[in-house]
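Exercise 7.
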Amino acid sequence: MKIKFLSILAFTTLLFASCSSDDSNSTPIVTDENLAGNLTSDLTLDASINYTLTGAFLVKDGVTLTIPAGTTIEALAGGTDVYLLVEKSGKIIANGTPTAPITFTSAAAAPAAGDWGGIIINGKAPISRQTGTESSAATEINTNILFGGNLPADNSGILNYVKIEYTGARIDDSAEHNALTLNGVGSGTIISNIYLKAADDDAIEFFGGTVNASNILVVNCTDDMFDFSQGYAGTVTNVYGIREASYLAVTVDPRGVEADGNLDGDSPTDINQSNFTINGITIVNNAPGTAATMQDVFKIRRGATATISNAYVKFGTGVIAGDLIDLKDTKGDANEATAITFTRLGANGLDLAAIKNTTIGGAVLTENTTQVGATTSAFAWTNYSF
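Solution. The predicted structure, written as C-alpha cells, is:
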C-alpha cells in the first residue's frame, strides 16, 4: 500500500442508454446499458443485458444496487476514471452462484491489468484514529466521500461468487486503485468466493473495518496480494495468492501480505490499530528472476498485530526469494507494537527460520512442513488450473 490518489473526476448524472434490435416490438428489447454517475434510487440489473461501466458509478447513501447471478459488467478501459463505489449506508447485493458467477471485467479488445479502477465499498465500521477523534476518513480517490464510523456490524451488502478482472488502474508509485477496496466495512457485510485476476496494484485491501472475508483467489496482481491497514479487525479465511511464471512486477516492493496498524504508519499513536486473523493461506511465486522478486511474503509492521494459522508458501524453480517474514518498521516508530503468531507454517524451497527483525514486537513460529494452506477445491467455480 502507498499514499493514495486524492482526487478524480466526479460524475453527477446517471446515464442509461438502450437500443432496440426490433422496431416492430411495442416494448424495446434492451441489448446494451451504460452505467455511470450517481445512483440515487434502488436499481436491480438484468442478467440478460450486457452492461458497460463507462465512468465513475456511485451508489449513494440509502440506495441498493442489486446485481443478479450470471450478470457481466464490462468496464471501459478508462483507468481511474472508471470504477464502482458504494458509499456509506449504500448497499451492493451481488450474490452469484458457482455456476452463474457475477463478472466485472474490461471491455478492451486486449484486456490488461489497469484497464479500470475496480470496486470500492465504504462502510460505517471503526477505523484506527487518535483518541477523542471521530472514526472517519476520506476515501482515497475522492476526499469528499467519507468512510468509517462506530458500527462494527454495519452491513454494506453481499459480494459472493464474484470475478473482478483487469483492474487496479495504476497512475504511479503513490497513486493507484486496487481491484477490491474495503473501507471501514462492517461484519454484517458478506465477502466470500471472490476471484481477483490481473490487478495493477493490490488485489484486495482492507482499510479498517471488521468485515470477514473467505475463499479469495488472487492471480497476478502487480503489488500486494492481501493488504491490511488503518485498524482492520476481522478474520480472513481460506485465501490463495499466486504469481504465474509470466508475471512481471511493477512496484518495487510487492508482497504476499502487507499489514499496517494505522494508515501508512503516519499515526503510530492511533487507537484501534489493525489486529486481524488469517486462517488458511497459500502464497505461491512461480515467476523467476530479479524482476519478480517478492520483497516479503509476510510484512507485518507499524503497530499491526496478526495471528496467521495454516500458512503455506511455495516458490518455484529459479524464483529469487526475499524475506519470508519481516517485522521491520521502516519508519522507525518509537511506539512500535508489531506482533505476529504463526502456527502450522509449511514451505517449499524456503528457510522457515528466516524471520527478520523479530526483536521488534516478537514472533512465534511453529513449523509443520506438511501443511497445505488454503483449500483449492473452494475455487473450482473459477475454473482456474492450479
